[in-house]
Write a structure and sequence with these properties.
By secondary structure, this protein is α+β, with helices and mostly antiparallel strands. The protein contains four helices and five strands; from the N terminus they run βααααββββ. Strands 1-3-4-5-2 form a five-stranded antiparallel beta sheet, covered by helices on one side.
C-alpha cells in the first residue's frame, strides 16, 4: 500500500499544506441560515431532451405530454414539455451544494409547489432560495427545522417553479461553536 504524504511543499508560496486553513465544501449549519436572506445558486442547469425522457421513463410517468412529440404537437403548447417533477428535483438539487450538503438530516416536507410556466428542452434553470423560518427542534437536540422557499427561473428570468421546503438541519458541532 502506498502511503500518501500528509504535507507537500507547493510550487509557489511558503506555507505547506499542514499550515493552511482547510476549507471543505459543505452546507450551512442551522446557525448559519440567515432569515430573509436570498441565496443565489450557480451554475445553472440546461435541460436536455434526454434528461426529460430518461427521468419520465425512470419514474414510470407515461404522460404523452413528455414523451410523444406527434401527440404533443396537437396540444396547446405545440410540443413536449419537461416533466414538472424533473423541474422540482433540479430546483432543489441546485441548492444542495450551497445550503444542505452534509448538514441536512432529512427533508420534512414540501408545500406551496407551483409551476407558473412550463420548462422546454434547451431551457437553462437557475435557482435561488429565501430562508422563511428556522427554529430549534423540540424533540431532536442538536438539530433545527429550517423552512426554505426555492424559486427556479429560466434563462430569460421567468419563474418556472416555486416550492416551500421544510428541512431538518444539524446545528454546528459544540467544538466548532
Amino acid at each position: 500500500m502506498t502511503e500518501i504524504p500528509t504535507t507537500r511543499t507547493p510550487t509557489t508560496g511558503t506555507a505547506n499544506e499542514t499550515e493552511r486553513h482547510l476549507v471543505e465544501q459543505r452546507g450551512l449549519w442551522f446557525e448559519e441560515f440567515d432569515l430573509g436572506a436570498r441565496y443565489v445558486h450557480r451554475p445553472g442547469r440546461t435541460v436536455t431532451e434526454a434528461d426529460n425522457v430518461l427521468f419520465t421513463t425512470m419514474t414510470m410517468n407515461v404522460q404523452p405530454l413528455h414523451l410523444d412529440e406527434a401527440w404533443s404537437a396537437q396540444q396547446p403548447f405545440g410540443h413536449r414539455l419537461v416533466n414538472s417533477m424533473f423541474t422540482l428535483s433540479t430546483l432543489v438539487g441546485l441548492s444542495v451544494a450551497q445550503l444542505t450538503l452534509g448538514t441536512i438530516v432529512a427533508n420534512l416536507g414540501f408545500s406551496d409547489i407551483r409551476f407558473p410556466r412550463p420548462v422546454m428542452h434547451g431551457d437553462t434553470l437557475y435557482a435561488e432560495t429565501i430562508v422563511l423560518d428556522k427554529r430549534a427542534s423540540g424533540s431532536r437536540p442538536g438539530e433545527g427545522v429550517v423552512t426554505l422557499e426555492h424559486t427556479a427561473r429560466n434563462q430569460d428570468g421567468e419563474v418556472v417553479a416555486v416550492a416551500v421546503r421544510s428541512t431538518l438541519v444539524r446545528m454546528k458541532p459544540r467544538d466548532d461553536r
